[in-house]
Write a structure and sequence with these properties.
- This protein has eleven helices and 44 strands.
- The chain has about 750 residues and is α+β, with helices and mostly antiparallel strands.
- The chain has an eight-stranded parallel β-barrel. A six-stranded antiparallel β-sheet has the order 30-31-32-37-34-35, with no helix packed on it. Strands 7, 10, 11, 12 and 13 form a five-stranded antiparallel β-sheet that branches.
- A hairpin with a 6-residue loop joins strand 38 and strand 39.
- Helix 8 runs parallel beside helix 9 and helix 10 packs parallel to helix 11.
Length: about 750
């Protein structure tokens, strides 16, 4: 791309001496007899020029072709009003492009409609101040097309406000079942990511238009990474799994980032295009169907946005880039040249104190609300929304920016959940909470210590909004998140023991998880659980690396013990959702020892939660609100309290939820189907195709002997093995004929028999 006053140096070469003729748009521009020559092309004729080399000898002619373009006169005009940043669809055949690009000399819209060539009619108009560039173009109705911006003749970038992109490096790995009819990348015509758009597209027909999002103080959030949750890694399978999530009583699903990120197999925090839905998980309409399906089940949808930073594929970083130093240029109107708050630095840091960044975030957030009807956004690492070096200090400017962001969101949807992963000083977080925002509350270490049976550092009171001096229940407390080690892994690897009580045994690990859940879900305020926590997922977050793909272990649900955790989790959530006493502001707690309690009160009901977190039996102190009859919600029994402050003696890990009103007995969905099974041995699946997992809940390394007998009492299989950490051994019985068998299992002094059907 050259100016009318410029010339373009060209070299013509052939493999042997010949006559060479060069034509520019059909006009002879150069002629010589040689093997190689250089010359200059120039033209005052704006637009695309086709340059053809004809090399001629006695055998005939061969040809080669290149293109160049001469810039038309720069068009300068005022920006039309009412247009969004990015692409605005004016009608079925007309679109309007609007780009913020101060300091640039020339910008073209390159499209698949004309093979990405910088023709004169694609040159954008600049505003008098030089900040904005715009262009109206005609496009084919109802047909996908792709486009880029060509900036200063050498940089090709996709639209920062793309709603979808085509990626030359990663799209080939997206299955057609996940994204049917994905348009191909325009290979050979351009380079880098391109924006994808289609006019006159049939709108998604929403089935649920009356959804009322749950009160933010009553949220029970299920956080998940689609990549590691279902094997197909797409929205359709996630939709098919919603009943499993819904049965737990979950009322909100929080997806780890699903806006466009670099690569396919990622946590999503390496953001590149914040407004574009990443195609690896499915189409925009399928994501809308997921949101619609959640709303029909009373479940809100929360997405995760990463506005602290963006990575190198982000157009904003590329448009103002300091290549020698591999960082944003000093004149980048959106980004800091250096990350101002080390060591918490990732990607290229946004400057949140400038208007372009504010506009960028507001445009994207509004789009996600209006286009996908999401109910909330969890904003990643908002402590980084500052230019101060010490991000841990109180920062009035950062607070002002976050309040402005929240106010803008509430102007679009006044019930929208604004959730911050902030990790700032408590006085700052309290101010943000007072403004109506929700904040992540990390008490993971203390919950894990309590679950493992080490009570010296197990006071998880910092997970209670009152302990922080907050006036509102705006603290989202959790015992697992994507950022933390799995609690079941911690218990099975490092758990405490005494005598025959060993927290590392799977059945006891599950008991300890239920115990800590009883002291998580009964604390008033919003709560969060991480995917498969309800099945005691016990592979390490660092296996094989922190952000690597993880095993998707739906087989856990067939395990007797793990399924028991799911059922108790559901029962505890149901209890807090059903009874107002667990939403009260009137409660006290003592969580700093090996005996822990919570006392909650409303005018017509009192509740007391008490547990023994030791690995030995010992006294607990319920400190009942009064004497009289108290009812045990999970056993259906009752006790008569004659001294409200007297201790009770509990077994290790024992816990109870007492109320002074008879609420009946907790309903543990389907518990009758597992009550008859032994507590330390289980087989699954049963019936089986011959591949059977044998669970023996005992010390790691214990020798287990097993024998299999047919219905005539004949031994048909036997073996021995030493138990692994998770207590599961796979038995391969595929060589046996179909029928009923009895498995005898012996370890130490224990002998168990199990019936099994091989199909």
């Amino acid at each position: 791309l050259i100016a009318p006053t410029d010339s373009l140096e060209c070299i013509v070469a052939a493999s042997q001496f010949c006559e060479m003729k060069v034509y520019d748009n059909g006009n002879l521009a150069f002629q010589d007899s040689s093997k190689q020559q250089s010359f200059y092309l120039s033209s005052s004729t704006p637009g695309l020029h086709t340059v053809v080399l004809e090399a001629i000898d006695l055998s005939g002619s061969v040809y080669d072709t290149i293109y160049y373009a001469v810039e038309p006169p720069l068009d300068v005009a005022s920006l039309p009003g009412g247009m969004d940043m990015g692409l605005t669809e004016l009608n079925d055949t007309t679109v309007f492009f609007k780009l913020y690009a101060p300091g640039k000399n020339r910008v073209y819209v390159l499209t698949s409609i004309n093979d990405y060539l910088p023709e004169s009619q694609n040159a954008m108009t600049r505003t008098p101040g030089g900040a904005w560039w715009f262009k109206e173009l005609t496009v084919p109705a109802g047909q996908p097309f792709s486009y880029q911006y060509l900036i200063n003749g050498n940089l090709r970038v996709a639209d920062p406000f793309s709603t979808q992109i085509l990626d030359p490096w990663n799209d080939g790995y997206i299955s057609s079942s996940t994204y049917p009819n994905l348009p191909p990348y325009p290979a050979g015509k351009t380079t880098g990511n391109v924006s994808l758009y289609q006019t006159a597209k049939s709108p998604y027909q929403w089935k649920n238009n009356t959804f009322q999002a749950p009160n933010k103080e009553h949220l029970i959030i299920y956080e998940l990474l689609l990549r590691d949750f279902v094997t197909t890694r797409n929205y359709q399978t996630l939709i098919d799994t919603l009943d499993y999530i819904s049965r737990m009583g979950i009322n909100a699903i929080e997806l780890m980032p699903n806006s466009e990120f670099e690569g396919n197999l990622s946590w999503g925090y390496n953001a590149s295009f914040h407004m574009a839905l990443d195609k690896f998980y499915g189409t925009p309409d399928k994501f809308k169907e997921f949101v619609d399906s959640c709303h029909s089940r009373g479940i809100a949808v929360i997405t995760d946005q990463v506005f602290n930073h963006a990575y190198g594929q982000n157009p904003i970083a590329q448009m103002w880039w300091d290549s020698p130093n591999n960082r944003p240029a000093a004149n980048n109107p959106y980004m800091n040249q250096y990350c101002p708050h080390p060591p918490n630095c990732w990607g290229n840091d946004f400057n949140h104190y400038v208007q372009p960044t504010r506009d960028y975030m507001d445009r994207i957030n509004t789009y996600w609300i209006e286009e996908f009807k999401i109910d909330g956004i969890r904003f990643d690492f908002t402590k980084g929304f500052t230019n101060n070096a010490n991000a841990d200090n109180y920062d009035a400017g950062r607070i002002a920016e976050l309040k402005r962001l929240a106010n803008q969101l509430w102007s679009v949807d006044n019930d929208f959940y604004v959730i911050l992963e902030h990790w700032g000083p408590n006085n700052e977080e309290k101010e943000l909470s007072d403004h109506g925002m929700l904040l992540w509350g990390n008490a993971v270490h203390q919950y894990h210590e309590a679950a493992m049976g080490y009570t010296g550092d197990s006071d998880f009171k910092w997970g209670i909004y009152k302990e922080r001096g907050w006036g509102n229940k705006h603290l989202i407390t959790y015992s697992e998140s994507h950022d933390e080690e799995r609690s079941a892994y911690k218990i099975k690897t490092f758990g405490n023991s005494s005598g025959g009580y060993n927290t590392k045994n799977l059945a006891t690990t599950v008991d300890r998880k239920i115990l800590t859940n009883a002291f998580l879900f009964t604390i008033p305020g919003p709560k969060m659980t991480y995917m498969f926590e309800e099945l005691a997922y016990d592979e390490s977050i660092n296996d094989p690396c922190r952000i690597c793909e993880k095993s998707i272990l739906w087989s856990y649900y067939a395990n007797t013990h793990r399924k028991r955790l799911y059922k108790y989790t559901a029962a505890l959530i149901d209890m807090r959702n059903t009874y107002g006493v667990f939403k009260t502001d009137n409660f006290i707690y003592a969580l700093n020892g090996d005996s822990k309690r919570i006392n909650l009160s409303v005018p017509d009901t009192n509740a007391t939660v008490v547990g023994n977190f030791r690995v030995t039996s010992g006294d607990v102190y319920p400190n009942f609100q009064h004497t009289g009859t108290w009812y045990d919600y999970f056993t259906g029994d009752s006790i008569v309290v004659t001294n409200a402050t007297a201790p009770l003696t509990y077994q290790p890990g024992e816990w109870h939820v007492y109320t002074d009103v008879n609420l009946g007995k907790a309903s543990l969905i389907g518990m009758d189907e597992i009550n008859g099974l032994p507590s330390t041995v289980a087989l699954f699946p049963n019936p089986s195709n011959g591949i059977v997992e044998l669970l023996v809940d005992t010390e790691e390394g214990t020798t287990v002997h097993y024998s299999l007998y047919d219905i005539m009492g004949r031994e048909v299989e036997n073996g021995r093995y030493n138990t692994s950490q998770n207590g599961i051994e796979t038995l391969v019985l595929t060589s046996l004929p179909s029928g009923a068998y009895v498995l005898k299992v012996q370890f130490g002094s224990e002998i168990h028999t199990e019936r099994i059907m091989i199909e």
